[in-house]
Design a protein that fits this description.
The chain is mainly alpha-helical and 163 residues long. It has a domain at 134-163. The protein contains six helices and two strands, in the order ααααββαα. A two-stranded antiparallel sheet has the order 1-2. The chain starts with 6 loop residues before the first helix and ends with a helix.
Length: 163
């Protein structure tokens, strides 16, 4: 018979998981900075570009307003960033929505080639790491991360409401 975990056990596991995710976040940020250097961009510009590419890959291209929220920039700063990316030929702004006021951000084909060249060597070792776990475990981990994100979103909404 297995014992139910105590609240102390849960807190210790949470602390270990949060620390591991913090380290992962740091590595992800370093990878983003390296990608920026690879492209000759500011780190924030590369982060925005990755958000635009990720949104496209998920089949839901992003708007400037949503991008602004994702990368935590004001609308004016986001406009300047998008102007730089568009001038460099990395993105295209289009009006694809029935409401012609809505702007959609798309990455250019050449930036996909450069992103693929940069990230492709990382795919195999990451696939190997993920491949060592059964799909059910990965599904549970994904669900756990989604719940933790929801908890943080709730906390941030509460904290920001008081600010």
């Amino acid at each position: 018979m297995t014992e139910e975990p105590t609240s102390e056990d849960a807190a210790a596991r949470r602390e270990l998981l949060v620390e591991t995710l913090r380290v992962y976040g740091g590595r992800f940020a370093e990878l983003s900075r390296s990608f920026a250097a690879h492209l000759g961009l500011y780190a924030t510009d590369a982060t925005a570009l990755l958000e635009i590419i990720a949104a496209e890959e998920q089949g839901a291209p992003i708007s400037p307003a949503r991008l602004s929220k994702r990368i935590l920039l004001s609308s004016g700063a986001t406009t300047s960033l998008l102007n730089r990316l568009e001038s460099a030929g990395h993105i295209v702004r289009s009006r694809e929505h029935s409401d012609r006021r809505v702007v959609t951000l798309r990455s250019s084909p050449h930036i996909h080639e450069r992103a693929d060249a940069f990230f492709h060597p990382l795919a195999a070792p990451m696939d190997a790491a993920v491949g060592r776990y059964p799909p059910a475990v990965l599904d549970q981990f994904t669900a756990l991360l989604e719940e933790m994100c929801a908890a943080m979103d709730t906390h941030l909404a509460h904290v920001n409401q008081d600010a």
